[in-house]
Write a structure and sequence with these properties.
The complex is a heterodimer of chains A (75) and B (268). Chain A is mainly beta. Helix content of chain A is 7%, strand content 35%. Chain A is extended. In chain B, the strands form two sheets. Chain B has a six-stranded parallel beta sheet with strand order 2-1-3-4-5-8. In chain B, strand 3, helix 5 and strand 4 form a beta-alpha-beta unit. The chains are: A mainly beta (75), B alpha/beta (268).
């Protein structure tokens, strides 16, 4: 990968080792990568969908927060 | 002083600001109890979008223009650390596909204010814009540097703001001296892709573009040139110096032509 930028590379890549991995989930049939914020919320980072119109759906747009609930399971 | 006062507004004063834009700018928590006031839950969705996404990217039903902003670094193969403001390849490309396919979208306005970024991602975005059937207009505001140059020239018509700049400089792996001939060859090839694209999609000649790219004495720690609005037009890189009204006028004219062509009428 080659960066062609006026910003020095040191400034661009500073702190890259702290990047947290994304989690992959499926919401209403659309696979998306999310960044967990806490136990109940996650932020949409990226969509993985073959349907281009999904990318225009404001509900799935990157930065949107999705909510979920932990489910208790008894063995 | 103003800023200081603003940050120390207490939540009892908050009710006087019904506008969501104010709400997000200061801490609304009660300092003593650390409780979140109940009405903080109600948030303006537009504000949320701007806060979270850096842009309001939702397609408005009533608009026939798809507006796309490319700001910060163009991010491609690597996820950049959070201090970078990035425009991500995998968001832009499918949106362009959707805009091309969506029958409600008749024209695309691309607003650029970028410091550059990944060569391959930038060229991919530029190629996508260049090969769209719908009318495209780009407008450079602030800066369209490095890989922003091919993106700026990729549209049917490009506009640059009077004060906007574009930095044209050589491509390199990092600040180190290139030591190995093979590396030089590789970089030269990468560079050739950018030069060729810019040449094919604007009126600048290869000689002029390379002259700007390798100019010494203009950038403090680098070779290259900073091209300001009117200069970009005089070199043939950009079509016109202008602003929003010029961009919408151009786009609307082109949409009219596109409609006529689509309906089988004569294109004037």
């Amino acid at each position: 990968m080659i960066m062609y930028s006026i910003v020095p590379l040191d400034d661009i890549f500073n702190g890259i080792e702290n990047n947290k991995p994304n989690q992959e989930i499926e919401l209403n049939g659309v696979i998306m990568q999310v960044q967990p914020m806490n136990a109940y919320q996650a932020k949409v980072v990226r969509l993985i969908s073959p349907n281009p119109q999904d990318y225009l759906n404001p509900a799935y747009s990157p930065g949107q927060i999705i909510y979920f609930q932990p489910q208790l399971q008894s063995k | 002083m103003e800023k200081y006062k603003f940050l120390h507004l207490t939540h009892t004063m908050k009710d006087s600001f019904k506008d969501g834009r104010i709400e997000i700018m200061y801490n609304t928590r009660n300092q003593k109890t650390n409780e979140v006031p109940a009405n903080e839950q109600i948030k303006n969705p537009t504000v949320e979008n701007i806060q979270q996404l850096g842009q309001n990217s939702t397609l408005q039903e009533e608009s026939n223009i798809f507006c796309m902003t490319i700001i910060g670094q163009v991010e491609g193969h690597m996820v950049l650390p959070p201090q970078n403001k990035t425009t991500k390849y995998e968001h832009i490309i499918p949106q362009l596909v959707a805009a091309e396919q969506n029958s409600k979208v008749e024209g695309i306005l691309i607003i650029l204010n970028t410091v550059g970024g990944d060569v391959e991602a930038g060229l991919a975005i530029a190629e996508m814009i260049a090969t769209m059937s719908k009318p495209t207009v780009t407008i450079v505001l602030g800066g369209g540097h490095s890989i922003g140059v091919p993106i700026a020239v990729s549209s049917d018509y490009s506009i640059i703001a009077e004060t906007a700049t574009m930095t044209i400089h050589p491509i390199r792996l990092n600040g180190l001296v290139i030591g190995v001939p093979q590396t030089f060859e590789y970089l030269d090839k990468m560079q050739e892709r950018v030069v060729k694209f810019v040449m094919e999609h604007s009126n600048i000649t290869e000689e002029k573009f390379k002259e700007l790219m390798f100019k010494t004495g203009e950038l403090t720690r680098d070779i290259g040139t900073t091209v300001i609005g009117p200069d970009a037009v005089s070199y043939g890189l950009i079509d016109k110096v202008g602003g929003l009204s010029d961009a919408t006028k151009q786009l609307n004219e082109r949409i009219e032509e596109y409609r006529k062509a689509k309906n089988g009428g004569m294109v004037q």
